[in-house]
């Protein structure tokens, strides 16, 4: 068992958790401002692809990082336009963004490189040892930053107000639409970072559908963490650990079905949102429009 | 019997869906132009790939089969006001169930074995669909989150079963169940093609769903709950039981899609998510959650899928454009719906005035899933 | 109409709204309202529900643009583009339904939107001190660190007041501020308002309760049906005079109504205690008996328990205690289906969210609540032919004007929508009929039609319970009148032997103080 609870398991947990942390922090900001965001998956995919493409053309992964964030922010702007300006259904728009997030990279991949499965190998972001790359500490630092922004700044207070009671926020002159746009676009930037982590941090290429549901897991983590940054961090670490354990179990050939371990986070999320274990406390104005009579 | 008015009622929906699809295809054409191809040539190749002959048409219908069933699944949940993103999981669990039942190769005649296989799929899908329904009715848990979680749970469960050959009739190397007993397979419908009886089942399901939704008190209750929870409570229709029922029906229909793939097309359950459950959402939305519309939209999306290969081969446009088109269609439909509601909202406020003169009517904007501009957070169980 | 006698004419007017007209399609909400508020006074704005008070305040705050009229604030013409500008001009609103965020602390609620000049960091300690000092200054005892959700309602209201003061408001507008308060909290509110006035503040106090006008205001402006009917110095007027001004004298409609011949009791409520949606006590031991062949009118100002009473009788709400009997059956806590089967029909006050599914065709709206009836279904199958035929007949008999039975209810006018509901509910031939606000927001022709139907039902031996905020309607139709105030029946009268003024006084809560003051005048 010494092998099992090892340094490797810890680093593997961080490795699997980091992209979830990026996306989940984005999702948290977005939901705190009152916009349901199931489009994180799409943002991550677009970000991952643009990061690989950017690295390929600019020949430096840092340019790729910028490209990944920018592309995901563009996708987020579209999402915000549909959800906030058109007042469309937030779930429907998110579903569409997710399909586009799968389709557009796959389409462009074929177009640019003629390779159906994935992009050519590109340069990776620098590592910091133990199989971790430079974005891992960034992810960890991001959590207290988001905590500070939400709880200790004027903008954070207004974001919360927009998410809790948009009409009350509007009644004291807060531009709810602007704050919601800002948060959705910020969630795009962060999820885009999470995507870049996958393509130019962890791997060194884009492969089709490589987010593999991490965007959805990130939303689950936000709910699991009760919409608080540190709670959400805990949830992403739990999900990351479950994934790391699954891999570890497989590698060591232990007599536990890895898939059943892998199922635990989802099962736990299902139980948590019943509110039986602990009160689930979503922003009261989630999904509500600001000026609804 | 009121035929003209009924046609005039359906016509705007049809036109709006067609307009949305047209706008999406135009946007798709821009994407194609942007990447340096000829959109006219691409779409022509797509069309002939989908409808140019017996084989292409059969392939279009093959692709449409799970989309029609999945679209019906989305529609019935939406009628009750539920957004079922879990069709994918329900479909896969059902496919696995029927695959296992068929792979056990019990010595049964087709007249028993085939219905048993199909029913096992429907039961598995129904159970997987019931869970989010119960969680919402009992605890108010948002179905979008629970169905997403159940999709992943389904994936893990299937992974586990497929890799456990000592307990189940599966083949981990090919990542599938053992082949289904011939007596349990859905027969072929058209010689020399892959079209199977699953397509007929899908059409039957559409007719049955239409009848139940629009001709029975059961369907009436489902629709009433979806359109106005307040009016349903006024009439004494229990909200919780009704949404659970709708979610079970939704899972059963998704299960039928799984049965078609496993017992019809593939002859075994393959551990691969083809994403039909997500395309089904687009099918439901474009079909306006009406069984007839869903059949039409299912065939449209089936055509795009099956024609894409031909398009890639002859026009050089990557077949991955299919998912782009699907996403654009959903965005387009959502925009049209939002615009429609916007106009409606203006009409209403014009009629009822504002302030103390008239009251904002809360249910005006929440009519059914996918068409409403917003999902209202549920205020918990009703007063009784 | 100008203010007749100005008290302390030395005080300059803070707010002048002259000749305000605000029309909505089909309705004139403000029809020439004059309101002049002087610096340093507490000015009550008195009127029934729907008199136009809220519209007037929305006009003042720039939420609606008036069609006619002049607004001056501090003597300068003012046309605010929105609440923000109104706040900038020194106006502050204390909403009836607080615009506060439960999860925030008191301080966060107060400073939201005006957090000070630091762009990034939120200095909570400094803000808490500021808010604490401000609270101290005005005697608004409230802990700046407390979470809003943990505070009682009266305390939350203070937070709203505090926020207005923090934003620099010198004129406070309170919209029905006592609606949710306990008597003790009301007294504390009065004390706070007096202190504010002594500090040079001006207060507009919107209410429909006469007792409050007398208790708190210096002057009072009464509006009725969108018009100012008078401004008085509170000390120089009387409650009866105000009641008369508020409810008016003229009779709009007259319904042919032969004398009633009440029979045995058909619907009886005993000692009903019901909790409202916000957890407040809504009915506090209510008794009533409805007899066959009578129209029993329940009058009262909105928010005194009407909604809860109707929903409890209709099976949509379960009483905490008490009993409901329908004919010989105890039906307490039974669901709407069982109640319908037992002989109850119900015209709900909310047409759009209760009475109709707006996106259903008329046929399916006729089916609402009737799915079990033999005329409409066999097993699970809906008898569409029968449903269509019945719908057509009802449309003809009840004069529901629509192109076809397949038309969606949404496309109908309010009057036709209401007629459809009434047709459906009367088609069942009930023993007892609950009619809640049956003519709210419908045109005059439909009102007459609805009234005739109710009288006809009475004459056929049914019991009709009429709940309305419209006193004219109650007086026109009822054989007996009950006054509902604060979740209790505070007066019972026989129609024709009670003055409008007397009813107005009761509705405003007068006579409630004298214990057991239930005046039975038969």
UniProtKB/TrEMBL annotation, chain C:
> What compartments host this protein?
Cell membrane
Q: Which InterPro entries match?
A: AAA+_ATPase, ABC_carbohydrate_import_ATPase, ABC_transporter-like_ATP-bd, ABC_transporter-like_CS, P-loop_NTPase
Q: Which UniProt keywords apply?
A: ATP-binding, Cell membrane, Membrane, Nucleotide-binding, Repeat, Sugar transport, Translocase, Transport
Could you confirm whether the keyword Transport appears in this record? yes
Give any Gene Ontology cellular component.
Answer: plasma membrane
Alphabetical list of Pfam families matching this protein: ABC_tran (PF00005)
Give the record's membrane topology. Peripheral membrane protein
Question: Could you give a GO molecular-function term held by this entry?
Answer: ATP hydrolysis activity
Q: Which residues cross the membrane?
A: none
- What highest taxon heads this organism's lineage? Bacteria
Q: Which residues form the ABC transporter domain?
A: 15-250, 267-511
PANTHER family per the UniProt record, alphabetical: CARBOHYDRATE TRANSPORT ATP-BINDING PROTEIN MG119-RELATED (PTHR43790), GUANOSINE IMPORT ATP-BINDING PROTEIN NUPO (PTHR43790:SF4)
Protein name as catalogued = ABC transporter domain-containing protein
């Amino acid at each position: 068992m010494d092998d099992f609870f090892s340094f490797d398991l810890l680093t593997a947990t961080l490795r699997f958790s980091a992209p979830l942390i990026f996306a989940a922090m984005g999702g948290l900001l977005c939901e705190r401002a009152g916009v349901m965001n199931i489009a994180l998956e799409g943002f991550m995919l677009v970000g991952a692809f643009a990061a690989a493409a950017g690295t390929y053309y600019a020949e430096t992964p840092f340019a790729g990082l910028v490209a990944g964030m920018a592309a995901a922010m563009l996708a987020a702007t579209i999402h915000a336009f549909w959800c906030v300006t058109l007042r469309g259904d937030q779930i429907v728009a998110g579903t569409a963004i997710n399909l586009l997030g799968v389709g557009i990279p796959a389409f462009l991949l074929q177009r640019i490189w003629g390779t159906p499965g994935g992009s050519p190998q590109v340069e990776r972001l620098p590592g910091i040892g133990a199989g971790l790359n430079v974005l891992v500490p960034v992810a960890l630092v991001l959590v207290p930053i988001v905590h500070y922004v939400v709880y200790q700044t004027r903008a954070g207070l207004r974001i919360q107000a927009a998410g809790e009671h948009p009409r009350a926020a509007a009644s004291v002159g807060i531009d709810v639409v602007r704050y919601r746009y800002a948060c959705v676009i910020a969630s795009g930037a962060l999820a885009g970072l999470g995507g870049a982590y996958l393509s130019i941090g962890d791997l060194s290429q884009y492969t089709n559908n490589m987010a593999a549901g991490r965007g959805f897991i990130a939303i689950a983590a936000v709910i699991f963490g009760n919409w608080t940054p540190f709670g959400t961090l805990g949830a992403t670490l739990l999900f990351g650990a479950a994934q790391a354990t699954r891999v570890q179990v497989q590698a060591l050939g232990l007599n536990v079905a890895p898939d059943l371990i892998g199922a635990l986070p989802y099962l736990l999320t299902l139980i948590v949102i019943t509110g039986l274990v602990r009160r689930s406390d979503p922003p009261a104005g989630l999904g509500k429009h600001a000026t609804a009579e | 019997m009121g035929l003209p008015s009924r046609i005039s009622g359906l016509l705007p929906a049809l036109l709006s869906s067609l307009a949305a699809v047209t706008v999406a295809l135009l946007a798709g054409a821009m994407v194609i132009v942007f990447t340096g191809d000829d959109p006219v040539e691409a779409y022509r190749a797509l069309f002939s790939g989908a409808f140019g002959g017996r084989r292409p048409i059969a392939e279009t219908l093959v692709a449409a089969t799970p989309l029609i069933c999945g679209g019906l699944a989305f529609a019935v949940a939406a009628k009750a006001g539920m957004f079922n993103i879990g069709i994918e999981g329900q479909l896969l669990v059902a496919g696995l169930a029927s695959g296992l039942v068929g792979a056990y190769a019990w010595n049964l005649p087709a007249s028993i074995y085939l219905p048993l296989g199909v029913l096992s799929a429907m039961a598995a899908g129904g159970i997987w669909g019931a869970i989010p329904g119960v969680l919402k009715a009992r605890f108010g848990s948002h179905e979008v989150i629970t169905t997403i979680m159940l999709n992943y749970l389904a994936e893990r469960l299937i992974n586990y079963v497929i890799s456990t050959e000592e307990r189940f009739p599966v083949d981990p190397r090919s990542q599938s169940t053992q082949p289904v007993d011939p007596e349990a397979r859905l027969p072929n419908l058209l010689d020399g093609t892959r079209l199977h009886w699953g397509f007929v089942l899908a059409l039957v399901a559409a007719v049955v769903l239409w009848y139940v939704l629009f001709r029975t008190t059961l369907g009436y209750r489902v629709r009433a709950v979806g359109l106005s929870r307040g009016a349903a409570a006024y009439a004494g229709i229990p909200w919780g039981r009704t949404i659970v029922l709708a979610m079970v029906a939704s899972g059963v229909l998704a299960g039928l899609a799984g049965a078609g793939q496993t017992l019809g097309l593939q002859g075994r359950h393959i551990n691969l998510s083809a994403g039909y459950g997500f395309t089904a959402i687009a099918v439901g939305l474009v079909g306006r959650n009406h069984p007839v519309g869903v059949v039409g939209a299912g065939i449209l999306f089936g055509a795009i899928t099956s024609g894409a290969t031909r398009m890639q081969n002859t026009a050089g446009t990557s077949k991955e454009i299919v998912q782009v088109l699907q996403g654009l269609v959903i965005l387009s439909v959502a925009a049209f719906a939002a615009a429609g509601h916007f106009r409606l909202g203006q009409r209403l406020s014009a009629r009822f005035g504002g302030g103390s003169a008239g009251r904002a009517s809360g249910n005006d904007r929440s009519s059914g899933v996918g068409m409403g501009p917003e999902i209202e957070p549920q205020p918990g169980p009703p007063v009784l | 109409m100008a203010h007749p006698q100005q008290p302390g004419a030395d005080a300059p007017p803070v707010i002048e709204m002259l000749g305000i007209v605000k029309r909505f399609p089909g309705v004139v909400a403000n029809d020439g309202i004059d309101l002049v508020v002087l610096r340093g006074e507490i000015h009550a704005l008195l009127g029934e529900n729907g008199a136009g008070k809220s519209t007037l305040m929305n006009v003042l705050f720039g939420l609606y643009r008036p069609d006619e009229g002049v607004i001056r604030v501090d003597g300068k013409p003012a046309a605010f583009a929105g609440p923000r500008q109104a706040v900038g001009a020194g106006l502050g609103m204390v909403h009836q339904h607080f615009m506060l965020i439960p999860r925030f602390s008191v301080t966060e609620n107060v400073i939201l939107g005006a957090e000070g000049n630091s762009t990034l960091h939120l200095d909570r300690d400094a803000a808490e001190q500021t808010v604490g000092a401000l609270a101290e200054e005005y005697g608004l005892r409230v802990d700046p660190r407390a979470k809003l959700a943990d505070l009682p309602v009266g305390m939350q209201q203070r937070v709203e007041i505090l926020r207005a003061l923090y934003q620099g408001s010198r004129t406070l507008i309170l919209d029905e501020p006592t609606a949710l308060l306990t008597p003790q909290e009301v007294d504390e509110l009065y004390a706070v308002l007096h202190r504010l006035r002594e500090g040079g503040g001006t207060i507009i106090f919107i209410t429909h309760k006469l007792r409050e006008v007398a208790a708190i205001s210096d002057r009072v402006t009464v509006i009725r049906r969108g018009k100012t009917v008078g401004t008085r110095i509170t000390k120089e007027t009387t409650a009866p005079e105000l009641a008369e001004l508020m409810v008016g004298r003229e009779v709009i409609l007259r319904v042919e109504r032969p004398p009633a011949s009440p029979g045995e009791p058909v619907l009886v409520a005993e000692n009903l205690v019901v909790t409202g949606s916000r957890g407040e006590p809504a009915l506090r031991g209510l008794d009533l008996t409805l007899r066959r062949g009578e129209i029993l009118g329940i009058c009262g100002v909105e928010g005194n328990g009407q909604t809860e009473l109707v929903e409890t009788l209709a099976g949509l709400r379960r009483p905490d205690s008490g009993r409901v009997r329908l004919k010989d059956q105890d039906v307490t806590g039974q669901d709407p289906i069982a109640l319908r089967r037992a002989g109850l029909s119900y015209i709900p006050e909310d047409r759009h969210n209760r009475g109709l599914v707006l996106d259903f065709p008329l046929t399916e709206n006729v089916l609402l609540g009737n799915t079990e009836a033999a005329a409409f279904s066999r097993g699970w199958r809906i008898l569409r032919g029968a449903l269509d035929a019945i719908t057509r007949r009802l449309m003809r008999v009840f004069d529901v004007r629509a192109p076809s039975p397949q038309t969606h209810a949404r496309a109908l006018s309010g009057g036709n929508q209401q007629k459809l509901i009434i047709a459906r509910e009367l088609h069942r031939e009930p023993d007892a009929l609950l009619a809640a606000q049956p003519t709210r927001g419908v045109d005059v022709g439909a009102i007459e039609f609805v009234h005739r139907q109710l009288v006809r039902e009475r004459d056929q031996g049914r019991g009709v319970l009429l709940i309305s905020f419209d006193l004219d309607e109650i007086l026109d139709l009822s054989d007996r009148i009950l006054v509902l105030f604060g979740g209790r029946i505070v007066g019972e009268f026989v129609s024709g032997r009670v003055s409008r003024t007397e009813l107005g006084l009761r509705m405003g809560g007068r006579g409630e103080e004298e214990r057991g003051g239930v005046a039975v005048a038969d």
